[in-house]
Amino acid sequence: KPGGNPQIRPQLIEEHLKRTGGKVLTRFPPEPNGFLHIGHAKAINVNFGYAAAFDGHCYLRYDDTNPEAEEEKYFTSILETVEWLGYKPWKVTYSSDHFQRLYDLAVDLIKRDKAYVCHCTAEEMNADRGGEERGERKECRHRSRPIEESLAEFQKMKEGRYEEGKAILRMKMDMQNPNPQFWDLVAYRVLYTPHHRTGDQWCIYPTYDYTHCLVDSFEDITHSLCTTEFRLSRESYYWLVDALELYKPVQWEYGRLNLTNTVLSKRKLNKLVTEGIVSGWDDPRLYTLPAVRRRGFTPEAINAFVRDIGVTTANTVIRVDRLEKYVRDHLNDIAPRLMAVLEPLKVTLTNLSEDHVEEFTVANKPRDDSMGSHKIPFTRTVYIDASDFREVDDPNFYRLAPGKSVGLLNVPYPITATEVIKDAGGKITEIKARFENDANTPAKKPKTFIQWVADSPKHNSPVKVEARIYGNLFKHENPLDSKLGGWMTDIDSDSLKVHREALVEVGIRGLEVESKFQAVRVAYFCVDKDSDVGKGRYVINKTVGLKEDSKK
Ligand code: ATP
Ligand code: MG
Ligand code: MG
C-alpha cells in the first residue's frame, strides 16, 4: 500500500469502493504537451501499480484541455511509452471526450450561484488576489452580477462573441480563505486555437482546476493520485465536486521524482531541443523515456528503480548512478557479450600465414548456456584497442607492450609484441607480434585477456560501427542551483564523444535496432535507430559502464 497518508479516510474509501463494485480505479493523466520523462515512470508505476495491487484498473487519460500546447506526436508517444514500460491501460480516455458534459456542469454551477463570468484583466485579477506583496484580497466587481447575466455572458463566450482574454468563467469560492486555490479559480477561458480532437467545435476550454476533478469523478476514480504540488488543490478539487453534488474521489499525494545532473521540465527540454544543444527529445543524454529507451535502458530496470525508491510524500532527487545501477544489473543478466574496440590498433601475428583462418565458438554469455553461442574468425591480422598497448612499459601494466605478452579473449594462446611500426609523424600504426602457439615453448599464462576483432574479409569481419559515448549533459548535480548563473551555462559541451572508426566482431550482425549487448571490457551498448541494419551499418549508444564510474 502506498504508505500511511493521513488524508485517506477509510470510511470514505469504503463508500467509494461500493460505487465501483469494490474496484480500485486509478488513472495516469498526462497532458499531451511533451514526451514522458523518468518522473512519469514513477507516476505510471504508482497509478498502475496501485490498481494492480488491489486487483483494480488504471486508465490512461489524456488531459487534453489546452489546444495551444498539445500535439498528435505526444499522444502517440505517450501510449507507446506506457506500453513499453509494460502497462496496459484499462481504457484510454480523453478529457476532451467530456467537453459537452463539462460545459453543461459549468452552466449548472452558474445556476447554483457558484460561478460567474468575469472580465478582469490578468493584472486586475492578480491585484484582487493581493498582488505580489500578498496584500488584502478583494472580490471582483463581476462576482455579484446576477446569475441570469452570467448565464448569458457564458453563452456569448461559447458563441465566440468574446476575444481571447476578454471573458472568463470563474468559480465563486472564498477570497478570504488562506489557500490560494480558493481565490475564485478560472474554470473556462476563450481560445480560438483549434483542438486536435474537437477541431473548432469549441472556442472555450476548461482549465485543469475545473476539469481534472470532474473527469476523475465521471470515471469513478477511487484514488486520485497526484504529486505534492497539488496538495493545496486538494481542497479546491473537493470544493468543486461537492458544489455540483457529484461523486467525490479521494486525492492522495506523493513526492515527485527528480534526477541529478539533468532537467526534466518540458519547457527546459524544449529549449535544449530548439537551441540544438541536443539532437531531439530522444537524445540519449536526456531523461525522457524515449531518450533512455534509445540509450538502452530497459523497462524492467526503470520499473525496479522507481519501485525501490518507494512512494513517500517527499520530493526526491536521486543520483543518476543509482538508476544506472539498475540498468547495469539487468543488462548483466540479458545482454549477450561481444568484442569491440573503440580505437582500433592493428596487430599482425607474423608467425601466422597470410591465409590463416580459424573459427572459434564463443558463448554469448560465459557460464550461461541458455544464451547460446556464436562463431568468430581468428586471423593473422587482428585489431585491439589502442589503450591496451603501451610503447613505454610499466611494471603495473599487464597488457601489451614491447616484449610483453597478453591474452586474447577466447583464444587459446597469448601474443607477444615484437615490433612497433610508426608513420612519418611518429604515430603508432601497427604492432607486430608473435602468436605463442608453439607447444615446445609455451608462454606463461597471461594475467590479462583483452578483446580483439579479426580482419577476415571472408567473414565480413570486423564490422565498422559508430560508437556514441554519453556523459552527463550537466556538470553539476543540480544545474538549477542559483549559484551557477543559469542552468544553460552548466551544459557540458563534452558530453557526447563519438568513435567513428570503432570495430565490432561479427556477432553484432543479426542485432536489430534496440538490441543490447555488452562490449566486453568496455561498456553496455544498444543499437541506435540511426543504424541501417539491413545494410550492415551500425550506430551504437553506450548505455552504461560495466562498473560504477568513480569520476562522477
Ligand atoms: P512537467 O512539469 O514536466 O510538464 P507535469 O506534471 O505537467 O510535468 P503531466 O503530463 O501533467 O506533467 O503529468 C502526468 C502525471 O505525472 C501527473 O500526475 C504528474 O503529477 C505526474 N508527474 C509528472 N512529473 C513527475 C515526477 N517528476 N515525478 C512523479 N510524478 C510526476
Ligand atoms: Mg500537468
Ligand atoms: Mg506541465
Automatic annotation (TrEMBL):
The keyword Glycosyltransferase belongs to this UniProt entry's keyword annotation = no
Transmembrane ranges? none
Name the Gene Ontology biological process terms: glutaminyl-tRNA aminoacylation
- Domain Glutamyl/glutaminyl-tRNA synthetase class Ib catalytic stretches: 23-332
Quickly give the catalysed reaction. Answer: tRNA(Gln) + L-glutamine + ATP = L-glutaminyl-tRNA(Gln) + AMP + diphosphate
Q: Name one GO molecular function term.
A: ATP binding
Instruction: Pull one GO CC term from this UniProt entry.
Output: cytosol
Q: Would you tell me the protein name for this molecule? A: glutamine--tRNA ligase
Q: Which organism is it from?
A: Rhizophlyctis rosea
Q: Which residues of the full protein are shown?
A: 233 to 784 of 786
